Amino acid sequence: MQELLQSLAPWLDDNAIFTASTLAQYWDGFVNTVQLVFISLLLGLFLAVPLAIGRASPIRVISRMIWLFTWVFRGTPLLIQLYIAYYGLAFIPGVQGSIVWPLIKDPLYPALLAFTLNTAAYTTEIFYGAIKAMPRGELEAARAYGMSPMLAYRRIILPSALRRALPAYGNEVIFMLHASAIASVVTIADLTGVAYNIYSRYYAPFSAFIFVALCYMVLSFAIQGIFRLLEKRMLAHLKPR
Amino acid sequence: MVIIQRRPGSPGGPFKRETMMKRLLTVSLLGAAIAAGSAQARDYDTVRIGVDIPYVPMEYRTPSGELAGFDIELGNALCEQAELKCNWVEQGWDGIIPGLMSRKFDAIMSSMTINDERRQQVLFSDPYLVPPSAWFAPASTDLAGVDSNDLKDRSIGVQRGTVQDNYVTDEFGDVANIQRYASADDVAVDMETGRLDIAFLDYPTGQAALLEGGEYKTLGEMMTEPKEYFGDGFGMAFRQRDEALAEKFNEALATLKSNGTYDEIHDKYFNEDGTNAPQPDQE
């Protein structure tokens, strides 16, 4: 990336705002945003699958507790969750100097925590909806074959439900990308944070923010493309013939 | 001026009303003409200066009720130099630019920081005082100083988009970890959590946010140089069209700076490092 920017430098000479150095900042912001969103989505996804199964569980206590978790995280703004994770955790008595302090001290981990739990809550509800919408016949067929509930989940319910949840999950991924724009309030230099720095440095709101909007659009299109491919492959059996 | 009096009992018919309208029209046209005339710049011999009191040590009242402060003394000296008669008009901060626009006074000299948003509305003089920026660290800090060796791999807190942010980014962006916050209060909170090793703020802000409790101290020297970073300071504000008046004050300021009067007043209110000097006549 550095070499690419260096080779671009001569063409950028006349430009006050988009110099090699600001483009390098945008690139760092791009990397930070992608990293933050990708890791929290991945962790959120791994959390959401067992949580969705628990949410659909016939045992009421488990189902209710998971419902409470999703209700709290879907019922409050992500920004507030981020503030609590970043500023709130740091003021728990005894946390400073403890073994988790290096993690809380770095703004990345509190942000990852808030983002992960938030996306896990939404994804849990998406998957739970898909599990609940399983065609009854498929479940009965599984039972008729003598499958244990575990086996039925593994072979029938999860593969079918996760596929059908794919379009809704694709939306959640894009929402998460856009929601990550608040990361700069806890000093993470993500795309939006970098755009804000450059805006306040050069007093050029249009250039700084339109460029960053384009960056987000490119990312959104890429995500959409990936999900379209996935849907084509995994939902092929549901397409009209 | 004819005063139209409607006699009691007489109906105010359409004719009467018409003359009334004509007169009203004439009067309003006249008013517009006066307003248009006054929209041009004029020569001032008396200048009314708006000031928000108190803001120690820039402007305040002594126990005996007299105006005092750096702005007041410098303003009076500037007026004397420019051979203008000056009156001070008290005005709350929120209404100080509207007060200038609505001609309650002709200039503002009230520790107003020159910035681009205000430049859209008012005309600024040259800066007459640049408040220093300062480094703030916990009282127990292990930092020895504030050069790039000391700050290597340390976390520096700044307020996003301020002159301090620009300076730190350019000077220490490669060696230190710069954390940018929306407000000085956020910086103060993260100083308390221990996420930040040091903060770089303008001195009055940092003094208010961090120095009161005694848990923090300033480190290194107060900074007002280099000018390319810290150039925008406090300026007098005028209406956009009063360029001649602003020019008079700029010339007077240049004269006072060269003949030593400015330094004399400055040293009365500020220590050499830019901190506030104790005032004997202040409560």
Automatic annotation (TrEMBL), chain A:
Gene3D superfamilies: MetI-like. It comes from the Bacteria. The chain crosses the membrane at residues 33-53, 65-88, 108-128, 173-196, 202-230. Residues 30-227 form the ABC transmembrane type-1 domain. It is a multi-pass membrane protein. The keyword Cell inner membrane applies. It holds the Pfam family BPD_transp_1. Its main location: membrane. It is found in: Cell inner membrane; Cell membrane. The keyword Transmembrane applies. One of its GO terms (cellular component) is ATP-binding cassette (ABC) transporter complex. GO terms for molecular function: transmembrane transporter activity. Keywords: Amino-acid transport, Cell inner membrane, Cell membrane, Membrane, Transmembrane, Transmembrane helix, Transport. GO terms for biological process: amino acid transport. InterPro entries: AA_ABC_transptr_permease_3TM (IPR010065), ArtM/GltK/GlnP/TcyL/YhdX-like (IPR043429), MetI-like (IPR000515), MetI-like_sf (IPR035906). Belongs to the binding-protein-dependent transport system permease family. HisMQ subfamily. This is Arginine ABC transporter permease protein ArtM.
Automatic annotation (TrEMBL), chain B:
Residues 46-272 form the Ionotropic glutamate receptor C-terminal domain. Residues 1-41 form the signal peptide. One of its GO terms (molecular function) is ligand-gated monoatomic ion channel activity. Keywords: Signal. Pfam families: SBP_bac_3. One of its GO terms (cellular component) is membrane. It is found in: Cell envelope. Gene3D superfamilies: Periplasmic binding protein-like II. Residues 46-273 form the Solute-binding protein family 3/N-terminal domain. Its main location: other. Belongs to the bacterial solute-binding protein 3 family. This is Amino acid ABC transporter substrate-binding protein (PAAT family).
